[in-house]
Amino acid sequence: MKNKRFVALHITIRLIGVLCFSFGVFTAWFWQTQPESTPSRFLVHLQPEPEKAQQNRNLSDYEFGGRTSECKELSEKESYECYSRARDFILKHWKDRKRAYIIIDVVNTHCDKERHVFIEPDDNSEWRIVWAEDINTETRDFNPNISVRTARSIKTERANQDTYYYKKGSSYLAFLDRNAKQIEDF
C-alpha cells in the first residue's frame, strides 16, 4: 500500500503544478493591458525620378541638331569640321531666333557628360542659351546631377596660346551671361 500512496502523492503534486501553471497563464492573459487600437500608418519614401536635362520642354517645338558623339571618333581634321557644324548650328539658330537644341557629348576620366544646349525664349520672351549638363556617374542613383547655366549672348573667339582646349588659331563660341561673363565655351 505504501507504493500506491507514493504514486498518488506524485499525481497530486503534478496536478497542483499543472493547475498553478494554468492559473498563471490565465491571469497573465486576463490582466494583460490591451493597447488602444490606432490606425497604422506606414511612411513610404519613394525615390523620385531622376531629373532630366530637357526638364519640362516639349522637344517637338525645337529643331534638333544631333549629337556630337560621332565627332570624337573622327580624324583631327574631320573632328574639327564636325564640331564646326555643331557650332554653326548653334550660331545660326541664335541669330535667327529659332528654337533649337543640340547634345554635346564630353567624355573624360571621371564621368561622361551630356551637355544639352537649348536656344529658346524665356518667360519674358528674351532669348537665351541654356546649358543643361547631365553628369552620368556610377554613384548617381536617383540624385539629380543636372547643372543649368544660362547665357544671354554668344561671341566668336579665336584660340590663342592661353586657350588650353582649342588649337591655336581655331575659332570657338564663347557663351556670356547678363554681365558679359563667359560661362561656357564650345
How is this structure best described in words?
The chain has 186 residues and is an alpha+beta fold. The chain has a domain at 59-154. Helices cover 27% and strands 30% of the residues. The protein has helices at 2-31, 76-96, and strands at residues 63-67, 100-107, 112-121, 127-136, 146-151, 153-158, 171-176, 182-185. Strands 1-2-3-4-5 form a 5-stranded mixed beta sheet, covered by helices on one side. Strands 6-7-8 form a 3-stranded antiparallel beta sheet, with helices on one face. β7 and β8 (182-185) form a beta hairpin. The chain is elongated. It starts with a helix and ends with a strand. The model has no long low-confidence stretch (mean pLDDT 79).
Which key terms come to mind for this protein?
186 residues; alpha+beta; 5-stranded mixed β-sheet; 3-stranded antiparallel β-sheet; 2 helices; 27% helix; 30% strand; elongated
How would you concisely characterize the structure shown here?
This protein is an alpha+beta fold and 186 residues long. The chain has helices at residues 2-31, 76-96; strands at residues 63-67, 100-107, 112-121, 127-136, 146-151, 153-158, 171-176, 182-185.
